[in-house]
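Can you please make up a whole protein chain along with its backbone structure tokens because I've never seen that pairing?
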Amino acid sequence: MKYVYSKVNDLNISQPLAISIGNFDGLHIGHQKLLQNLVAISKNKKFLSCLVSFNPHPISYFKKDKNFLIDVEQTKIELLEKIGLDFYVSIIFDKTIANLTSNEFENTVLSKCLNTKLILSGLDFKYGSGRSGNIITLKNFSDKNNIDFNTAEVVLDKELSNKISSSTIRGMIREGDVKSASQMLGREFEVRGTIIQGDQRGRTIGVPTANIKYNDLQVELKKGVYAVNVTYNNKKYRAIANYGIRPTFNKITPLLEVHILDFNQDIYNQEITVSFNQMIREEFKFDGIEQLLKQIKTDISMAREILNHGN
């Protein structure tokens, strides 16, 4: 897959393209099915398949929102590669593209910047300043320019597409219901980060942790303890994680602390991916270290049971 990250004025792909447009945040199973069909259709038509997306997400751009995305860009790229797309075009969402009318978007992005031959669109896709463009105006543009036009209704089960959405998944993650979110994503929700130096308190009580700063671009997970899987150096490990402010020690800055089970390597400054399987409990303040350690042992036993059962 060719990844193109570009300002709209610098974008120029001359190969004939079958495209879908949208942020597809989370690439849930509805998105996956649509894009798999895009790949199949493009091969049949002798076009190249292409997802056209925007970075940052328009909602983040206009509302200056952090903690919004389900996936960071690298995760999205890896998932799209597995689907088999030919192109992933990530357009830099700035003032220039934000001010394009729907007609200007059609003529600039779809005609001038891309050699669009086929469009496969979601039913709720909106584009152009003020979100004035929709599937009706997009179909009209396609008809006038001899572009094949299809909607997701052709390739997706209505019951599936009505139940699954990125906004629903964000709500589940915020509530700690990562298990339901994973069912809609078709995989576990994940957070990536580089391991940083912590207080090393976990090591002194026999429960060493790998600590990473939670990515503030991603939707914020509910504070609590989770059974997780950790990927490090292309290997997968079972683990338990706490995301929160550690009230027992009067901390105020959120941190993701991960105890990797049956693991004793030194991995400071290394990158890991934490994939959330199931919430065990919410975060709360303990009266002291002994009470905390007792609960941690219970949490670890529960995490082992959850992760073993998932195997």
